[in-house]
Amino acid sequence: MAMSFFDQFASPSYLGIPLIAIAIALPWVMYPTPSTRWINNRLITIQGWLINRFTNQLMLPLNVGGHKWALLLTSLMIFLITINMLGLLPYTFTPTTQLSLNMGFAVPLWLATVLIGMRNQPTVALGHLLPEGTPLPLIPILIIIETISLLIRPLALGVRLTANLTAGHLLIQLIATAVFVLLPMMPMVAILTATVLFLLTLLEVAVAMIQAYVFVLLLSLYLQENV
């Protein structure tokens, strides 16, 4: 029984064919395509307004050079939010509970920000490894510590997203199992547990959106240091 709780995180397959590609591609099909007309319907208008607000919030701390990343970062955030929200539906699979997928997003984008800093301003980029005014005996130790903290950034991005979503899905499944077990024996306790389950589900909806926003926000902060 304990092992079955983790079956929901196994990558689904049909006739030996992995279905994770469909789970990743499906969110883009759900969004309506803006038309060339001057007047759009309400759904497209709300979608455009939300995307503009997200983009303005992300690009606010960046200078003009970092605005080239607006399309990439906004698309990534919408993609992560959609996948996380769809994963809360029954009988669905959440690709972002896979550490390999999250690291596949985190490592290349983090590496791109580092390479941009090394190309545009190598002195400033290397200067982040050694704070100003450091005593001479501490210089080697601080360089090693700052280098490790720099290299651990993509791991922190991927693990944070994976751990938060995995923990939330496990809690929902555990409490839902408790509701079914308690319902025949103690109905009142089962009702209270179901209320906790409903509140936890609302919390997970918020976590699904917040974690996608935090993932992209941290990438924009890393970009801010290098542009």
Automatic annotation (TrEMBL):
Belongs to the ATPase A chain family. PROSITE patterns: ATPASE_A. Pfam families: ATP-synt_A. It catalyses: H(+)(in) = H(+)(out). This is ATP synthase subunit a. The lineage of its organism: Eukaryota, Metazoa, Chordata, Craniata, Vertebrata. Keywords: ATP synthesis, CF(0), Hydrogen ion transport, Ion transport, Membrane, Mitochondrion, Mitochondrion inner membrane, Transmembrane, Transmembrane helix, Transport. One of its GO terms (molecular function) is proton-transporting ATP synthase activity, rotational mechanism. One of its GO terms (cellular component) is mitochondrial inner membrane. It is a multi-pass membrane protein. It comes from the Eukaryota.
